[in-house]
Predict the structure of 7-carboxy-7-deazaguanine synthase.
Amino acid sequence: MSKVPVMEIFGPTIQGEGMVIGQKTMFVRTAGCDYSCAWCDSAFTWDGSGKGLIKQMQAEEIWQELVQLGGDGFSHVTLSGGNPALLKNLSHLVDFLKEKEIKIGLETQGSKWQDWFVDIDELTISPKPPSSKMNTDFDILDSIMQRLRDANQSNHISIKVVVFSDEDYDYAKKVHLRYSDIPFFLQVGNEDNKTTDNTQLVEQLLTKYEWLIDKTMLDHEFKNVKVLPQLHTYIWGNKRGV
Ligand SMILES: C[S@@+](CC[C@H](N)C(=O)[O-])C[C@H]1O[C@@H](n2cnc3c(N)ncnc32)[C@H](O)[C@@H]1O
Ligand SMILES: Nc1nc2[nH]cc(C(=O)O)c2c(=O)[nH]1
Ligand code: SF4
Ligand SMILES: [Mg+2]
């Protein structure tokens, strides 16, 4: 069977992060992750707390739900998770969306390869810095980046590293210098991904954003880099499904 575990489908909304920030898009969030980042803002996809929400779905069913939500008012779908790259069967959804002439974005951390990566229009690889408590396997990451380069997709791939600390920043720089031919994004870390106090959250995020900008601008080793907030958190805070 060609089903995949889906945690939530939502949109239309803006892509709040990375290379296509601001893009009107639908989201399909898959369940399950091979990581367990200390600060994961989508931990319900892997920590058991969202177990009851998981639906095993075929590409066609996912499409129906997307259309129910978005009508004919969308042309872009972002796949996120959890780690969608755990799912070989997502190839069916990717093929289905391509047939419908829908552009596809993908959010993944660079721990696993899938052949359907080459069919993604905007692919974001987001290796995890020390504060996540995860370890990057650079042999695997090297091979994924090489396969993506070989597939001649380099215009549509990017690396995005979330930064919480000086140590994370140093890690981000190491990643950037290792793959210096790939468009690179720094993203502000959200340290308080449970709070419902949006005023306080936004204030905190803005302070952090300024810190990250200041640091990067003074750094001559970071040249071709984009420094971004997680835009959706400035509008909707930690709300799910937006
Ligand atoms: C929830 S993850 C799902 C996709 C994939 N597992 C990954 O990590 O790339 C989507 C994006 O959110 C980022 N993210 C998760 N928690 C965050 C936080 N507390 N602050 C900022 N970004 C966060 C991740 O680094 C990743 O780039
Ligand atoms: N609006 C919005 N933009 C996003 N970009 C990446 C997201 C994710 O959780 O993967 C996300 C999300 O959950 N919402
Ligand atoms: S890799 Fe992504 S989904 Fe998995 S725990 Fe880390 S941030 Fe969360
Ligand atoms: Mg998110």
The pocket of iron/sulfur cluster (ligand 3) is lined by residues 33, 35-37, 40, 42, 45, 81-83, 109, 128 (CB under 6 Å). DSSP finds six helices and nine strands in the chain. Helices lie at 59-70, 90-99, 138-150, 166-178, 198-217, 231-236.
